[in-house]
From TrEMBL:
This is Helix-turn-helix domain-containing protein. It comes from Alkalicoccus daliensis.
Length: 82
């Protein structure tokens, strides 16, 4: 199992090989979803997905990501308001 936190930290430290690895790892999922678009659009959309993935890898902040219990409490608080 891949530790994505380690991969993201390496990418943010400037490791271009980790960025390439992450994008290649995610490409099968991207391609699977792109099969529902027209062939003319697929290559353009794939390129956009690669760029977005690259940008997210560089900008993701683990410190700002809530833990499960924090998320659960926030989610419950939003839905319990009447």
């Amino acid at each position: 199992m891949t530790n994505w936190k380690t991969v993201v930290n390496k990418v943010q430290s400037g490791d271009k090989y980790s960025a390439e690895w992450a994008i290649r790892t995610l490409e099968p999922n991207m391609k699977r979803h792109l099969k529902y678009t027209s062939r003319e659009e697929q290559e353009n959309l794939m390129q956009e997905l690669r760029v977005k993935t690259f940008l997210v890898l560089h900008s993701f902040r683990f410190q700002e990501t809530p833990g499960f219990w924090e998320w659960k409490k926030e989610h419950e608080d939003k839905h319990l308001k009447i």
